[in-house]
Design brief:
By secondary structure, the protein is of the alpha+beta class. The protein has a single domain, classed as GMP Synthetase, Chain A, domain 3. The protein has helices spanning 12-19, 67-78, 107-113, and strands spanning 37-44, 51-57, 90-94. The longest helix is centred in the middle third of the chain and has 12 residues, at 67-78. The radius of gyration is 16 Å and the shape is elongated. The N and C termini lie far apart (61 Å). The relative contact order is 0.21. Mean pLDDT is 90; it is low at 1-7.
Length: 115
């Protein structure tokens, strides 16, 4: 009897594609295009059938009242990805080093916001 196939390997690119669907509620632009995502890593868990997605991100301001909202939005966007057993496999770290500045936006976001 053959072992069941293992889940599709989770990639950094797939995590970024899902994060690009998370829209900043105030600005109406993706958090990826705004430059709020600093890094994504995908690590296999000890059982090798699932992964941990680690996301290093920032907010436009340290006192942003939407910090908790972004946490839920990011986890919701990654829900159902092959290899992520639950939202506990999504680790989000907020940093303000370096602080976010408008130059971190991609050209599309800058154009949309008139920069």
């Amino acid at each position: 009897m053959q072992a069941p196939p293992s889940p599709q390997s989770l990639t950094k690119d797939e995590v970024y594609r899902r994060l690009d669907t998370v829209i900043d509620p105030e600005l109406g632009i993706s958090i990826v295009k705004l430059g709020l995502i600093y890094d994504v890593t995908v690590e296999p868990k000890a059982d090798a059938d699932s992964y941990i997605a680690r996301i290093l991100m920032t907010l436009t301001t340290p006192g942003c009242p939407l910090a908790a909202v972004f946490d839920h939005m990011v986890k919701d966007a990654l829900y159902g990805l092959s290899g992520l057993a639950s939202d506990q496999d999504v680790h989000i770290t907020l940093t303000f080093d370096p602080p976010w500045v408008p130059d971190m936006m991609d050209e599309e976001a800058k154009a949309e916001l008139g920069f």
